[in-house]
Amino acid sequence: MVVKKKRVLLVILVLVQALLVWAGPDEVYQNRLQALKSPLEFVYNPAVKPFIEEYLANPEATKELLSRSKHFFPFIEKTLRSKGLPTDLKYLAATVSALNPSAVNTGGSSGLWMMAYPVSKMYKVKVNTYIDERRDPFRSTLVAGQHFKDLYSIYKTWPLAIASYGCSPVTLNKCIHLSNNSFYFWDIYPYMPAFCKDLYPRVIATAYIFNYYKEHGLALFEPKQEWETDSILVNKWLSFQQISAVTEVGVEELRILNPVFRKDVIPFNAEGYYVRIPKSKSKRFEMLRDSVYRPIQASEIQAEPIDKMQTAPAETPTGTVKPFTKKKVIYTVKKGDNINDLADWYDVSVYEIKSWNKLKSGKLNYGRKLTIWVDGAKLGYYKKISKMSSAQKKKIKRKD
Q: What is the maximal distance between C-alpha atoms in the chain?
């Protein structure tokens, strides 16, 4: 009886597949996308078809992307969920960077979410000669999540929020005006520039391939990269070659695990930077930590082209650690204070304030004393801020 049921099911499956083939690819894609219930509105349009076929025409690259998702999707989903966002936004990351945190495009956008420099500046993401926090998968996902919330609050529809991420709200608003102020993506589509109009159809194609890769004979394989890692705190100038020599982890593997460091060098920072290495090698590093540090040679600094218009200057290693010029101030949280204003007043980032004070969120409790590291040359000025009235502190923001 069980064998008969299995045979019947097999016959039904074969018939369904035959009907789908007979129906033609457009109808197949349409029916399958209709079955995906998502707030992102995965509606089939002929503009989506070329991007689905692009994935199918490059099976090895597609399988590589699918396999990377096993590492990146879990924490992306968790972060998006914590911000009340649709987890299907993960397909946007897969679309723009192929889940490669080191990805860079010709426009200077970088990281897992291919974040543009103006966006990183807006959310105070550190980008300079040595550090690019857009390439930190965790940090960039948090920032991208906040950016998506802001874009959705403008357009109230995910297709347009995604389109505006591909260009900018200014550009998209011009396209909306040209379409007689329609807020339906496909009405605005003909008026959009290519780099803006293609992003949403590509996201739909990515969602399709992630949900129906088996139907196209694509199989996942285990990624070669070892993702089980430990984080080690480094607070001196240190090169990947020095770490490699001690831990026997290849420089290329260190680059993959630590895309945030642009030149194969960890620069000096008061709080230090966390460097990820395979868990199996972390004990070896701790045992030989004292013998790791030495002056960095010029040959150890990766020659990566830097766009001077899109990066802030940073210190350079000279063989000895530069004198530390930061000074500590203590700020007592007042009623009505928020972390963004605090970052403005002291010319630091929200991320730094959280890091220095081990804050899990941006919420500030009244009366809490916060440690902030400021430019030592302006210590007197920064000390006065804690004693200022609300009106005086508002003037600081207006001057900025």
A: 87
